[in-house]
């Protein structure tokens, strides 16, 4: 699991709002065993919600990364 972005909002019960959260290559690049940041191809699930997936109600979306790239520190 990787926390790639965060935006704090308050909504009243029944209220909805559209939120845009941009995730760039750095946000999607974990550090590998050699200490290098790398975006790795694969299928991922992105969770949106008020807490940790499995401990809070979240909405999820699939994300497919089709290439790999090293990311500068």
Task: Give structural notes.
This protein is mainly β. The protein has no helices and four strands. It has strands at 37-39, 42-49, 58-65, 69-71. A two-stranded antiparallel ribbon has the order 1-4. A two-stranded antiparallel sheet has the order 2-3. The protein starts with 36 loop residues before the first strand and ends with a strand. The mean pLDDT is 83.
Keywords:
73 residues, mainly beta, two-stranded antiparallel ribbon, 30% strand
Describe the SSE topology.
Blueprint: E1 37-39, E2 42-49, E3 58-65, E4 69-71
Antiparallel strand pairs: 1-4, 2-3
Structural class: mainly beta
Number of strands: 4
Q: What series of H and E elements makes up the topology?
A: EEEE
What is the topology, as strand order, of the major beta sheet?
Answer: 1-4
Strand content: 25-35%
Instruction: Please report the distance between the alpha carbons of the first and last residues.
Output: 20 Å
Low-confidence stretches: none
Average per-residue pLDDT, rounded, comes to: 83
Q: What is the radius of gyration computed over CA atoms, rounded to a whole number of angstroms? A: 15 Å
How many DSSP H or I helices? 0
State the share of residues found in helices, binned by percent.
under 10%
Shape call: elongated
Sheet of most strands: 2 strands, antiparallel
